[in-house]
Design brief:
Layout lengths: L13 H14 L1 H19 L5 H15 L10 E5 L4 E5 L3
Antiparallel strand pairs: 1-2
Helix pairs in contact: 1-2
């Protein structure tokens, strides 16, 4: 996304463009683009390490039941919703 000649804005998300424009307005175009390039490199490096802990716990609990053949998940899967003091499990629609 960041090239030697500048930043390709067409490849950025809406939030990234907002951040770039804010940096340009606050500290000037040259410094803002340099700061944005550094921020973007750091943000992309941290993406791989981010794992949702709740998703991992649910997957771990379900995986044990699937391996012991006590549970089978049909094509399309299920939807998990949080209810009042309970978890609602619904079959996902087509």
């Amino acid at each position: 996304m960041v090239r030697e000649l500048g930043i390709v804005e067409a490849e950025l998300t809406k939030g990234q463009i907002r951040k770039l424009n804010a940096l340009r307005k606050s500290v000037g175009p040259a410094i803002g683009e340099r700061a944005f390039a550094e921020w973007l490199e750091n943000a992309e490096a941290g993406k791989e390490a981010a794992v949702d802990r709740n998703t991992a716990l649910i997957a771990e609990a379900i995986e044990a039941a699937i391996k012991s053949k006590k549970l089978s998940i049909p094509r399309g899967g299920y939807l998990l919703k949080r209810g009042r003091g309970r978890v609602l499990v619904e079959r996902a629609g087509p």
